BED-type domain-containing protein
Amino acid sequence: MAENNKKQIKGPPASSHSKVWRHFGFYETVDGKALDKDYAICKNCFAKIKYNSNTANLQMHLVRYHGELLSGDNEGKPSQPTIITAFKAKLPFGSQRAQSITKSIAHTAWSRMMDFAECWQHWNRDTRY
Ligand SMILES: [Zn+2]
C-alpha cells in the first residue's frame, strides 16, 4: 500500500463515548510514542482543533463546518436534542413560545435594571457628602 503523505489520524480516546469522536482523532506525537492530545484533528477537513479534555470545541467545529454530517447521527432514533442543536433551532417568528421567551427575557432585564436603579439611588444617597 502506498504511503500517504498525510499523517494518520488515531483515536478516539477509549474513555470517550461522545458522538463527536466519530469525526475526530489525534495525530501521533513526533516520536510516535503517544498521541498529541493538545489538538483533535477533524477527519473531514483535517482542521486542528484545540482540545482541552472536553468536546465543546469539537462539537462547535462540527456544527459550524459540517452541520450536514450531524443530522444523520441519531440513525433514526428519536432522542433529546443536544444543547447545540437546541440553540441552533429557530422558533417561528411570532410563535407563542417565541413570544413567551421574549417576554420572559424582557421581564428579567427590566427587573434587573430596576434592581440596579435602586442600588444606584442608595449608593448615590449614601455616598453624598
Ligand atoms: Zn472539519
